[in-house]
Design a protein that fits this description.
Blueprint (H helix, E strand, L loop, with lengths): L5 E5 L6 E5 L4 E5 L2 H7 L4 E7 L3 E5 L4 E5 L4 E6 L5 E6 L5 E5 L13 E3 L12
Parallel strand pairs: 3-10
Antiparallel strand pairs: 1-2, 2-5, 3-4, 4-9, 6-7, 7-8, 8-9
The protein binds zinc ion (2 copies).
The site of one zinc ion has 10 residues, from loops.
Protein name: GFA family protein
Pfam family, one: GFA
InterPro entries: CENP-V/GFA, Mss4-like_sf
C-alpha cells in the first residue's frame, strides 16, 4: 500500500492512530444536535469510507464507543476526548471518520451538508 491509497489520522493525545483506505465515498458536515454536542462545535465533519479498510494502528484500547441512538456509534479516545468516527450498526460496511483528526489535512472536497436547518447562527458564513 502506498501513501496515496489511504488516509491517516490520530487523536489529540496521539494515543490512537488509524488509517483508512481510499476512496472516500463522500465527505460531509453534519449539523445535527448530536454531532454538535459530541464535537462541541457547529458540526461533525466526516469522510465516509469502507469499514473494511479502516485499521486502528495504535491505541485500540483507548477507543470508547458511545451509543448515541439505537444504531449510531460514536468512537472517541477516552484519554483525550478526540472524536474519531461515527458508524451505524445498520450499515456495518461503512464508517465515517472525522476530518479534523486526519493528517495531513483532508484535501478532498466536502460535498454534503446534513441537517442544514440546524446550522447555528453564530457559524461564520465565510
Ligand atoms: Zn487521545
Ligand atoms: Zn450528525
Amino acid at each position: 500500500m502506498t501513501e496515496s491509497n489511504y488516509l491517516q489520522g490520530s487523536c489529540l493525545c496521539g494515543g490512537v492512530r488509524y488509517r483508512a483506505a481510499l476512496p472516500v465515498a463522500h465527505a460531509s458536515h453534519c449539523y445535527c444536535t448530536m454531532c454538535q454536542k459530541q464535537h462541541g462545535a457547529a458540526a461533525g465533519s466526516y469522510a465516509n469510507v469502507a469499514s473494511a479498510g479502516f485499521v486502528v494502528e495504535a491505541g485500540a484500547e483507548l477507543i470508547t464507543e458511545y451509543a448515541s441512538s439505537d444504531h449510531g456509534r460514536r468512537g472517541f479516545c477516552r484519554a483525550c476526548g478526540s472524536t474519531l468516527f461515527w458508524r451505524s450498526t445498520e450499515s456495518p460496511d461503512r464508517i465515517a471518520i472525522t476530518l479534523g483528526t486526519l493528517e495531513p489535512e483532508y484535501a478532498g472536497p466536502v460535498e454534503r451538508e446534513w441537517f442544514v436547518e440546524n446550522k447555528p447562527a453564530w457559524l461564520p458564513l465565510k
